[in-house]
Write a structure and sequence with these properties.
The complex is a heterodimer of chains A (227) and B (194).
Chain A lengths: L12 H12 L7 H13 L11 H27 L19 E3 L11 E3 L4 H6 L16 H12 L3 H14 L6 H14 L4 H12 L6 H11 L1
Helix pairs in contact in A: 5-6, 5-7, 6-7, 7-8, 8-9
Chain B lengths: L3 E4 L5 E4 L5 E3 H18 L4 H18 L8 H27 L17 H18 L4 H12 L4 H8 L3 H24 L5
Antiparallel strand pairs in B: 1-2, 2-3
Helix pairs in contact in B: 1-2, 1-3, 2-3, 5-7, 6-7
Classes of the chains: A mainly alpha (227), B mainly alpha (194).
Amino acid sequence: MKRLRENLEDSEPSVRAGAALLSKVRPFELSPDQRRRIRARVEAEPEGRGARWLRPAFALPLLLIVGIAGASAGERWYRAATTQRPLEKAPLPATPHAPSVVRAAPAARPAALPEVSVDVEAPPEVEAEVKPAPTAKASPSGPGASLMMEALQARRAGDAARAQQLSAEYRKKYPSGALREEALAIAFESAAARSDPSAAKLAQNYLASFPRGRFRKQAEQVLASQR
Amino acid sequence: MNVMVQRLSPLDVVLDQRDGSTLTFEQVYASSLNDVARWIRALGGKPADVEDLTQEVFLVVRRKLSDFDGRNQRGWLYRIAQRTVRDYRRRAWFRRVFLGSVSSSEHYDAAASSDDPSEVLERKQAEGLLYGLLAKMSEVRRTTFVLFEVEGYSGEEIAEMQGIPLNTVWTRLHHARKEFLRLVAEGGRAGGSP
């Protein structure tokens, strides 16, 4: 077959133009320098090169996995780093409801006081979130967190009446709040500290609502002491 | 199949073929270096990358010479070149999409061909125009077209290296020519004389 570049005299203009274009282009030729460089590099290259895991088909999924792991670890780290801890520095293991919490140690009555987990977000944000509707479901960092903080501080300061009142207020305002369990626990514990007869009822209430709750033991102790 | 492969030094890989003759890496390298570079260009490797890609092909050749059955050396080398260029395109795509880097420029090694700067410039412009038009063709047609019309291989040689019947080569070439002339005509109508 005749090559197109040989048709420079063709009657068809496009053929002539194509032939003219092709006639200006020469076959590819490596220069002596290029030949030397290629040779030197082939000689210098150790055998067994070409790690498969560096190829995109292998590297992409690997990068994806590392990226996802890094993102989730980074997010946790960021949350942990930006969370304030006004009470104590010891963090609790993450729970489904409260990923970053501070455990407040019992103060007045170590034996009976339940351990309460309260989220400790930055105060201005928390204050702004106290306002929503009473029926709104509170998240650990959401509505009512400051109320519970206050109740906890009152309890630690020995003001059981105030703590009981605040926890009751929380339960009234946020009947399905995320800190309801803690509110009930503080309520029965504070009532027990004041020898309030309602302590048994509150403890029963707690056990009914949270049969496998974290403060079950304390509730049972309160019930036992009331009998 | 192969009888024995000896490794003496990086460039002394020896393949004992069935007919008793030996084929060394050195022989493969010396006889095919420029062909491989041409195929890489025809397969779509940019001029600036041809050197690297040729080197990559020969590294694969050195590694795989022991697996080569000794038949159709050109076809074997061509397939390695084809895979190398495909991987290179994938890497270029990856760099462009994920790293945002632009692929290497259409650098032309002037020292490779001529001493006359105006001739080099004219050829560079013609190459730019030609490969710009060819970029609009399918890979199969473009490769056959470049191998035949630019690199000067015969239909039989192309059939041998691509491992296809000769008639398939002519069919591809026929369609590639038609498309090329249409692109040239369109280019001419658009204002630039190709």
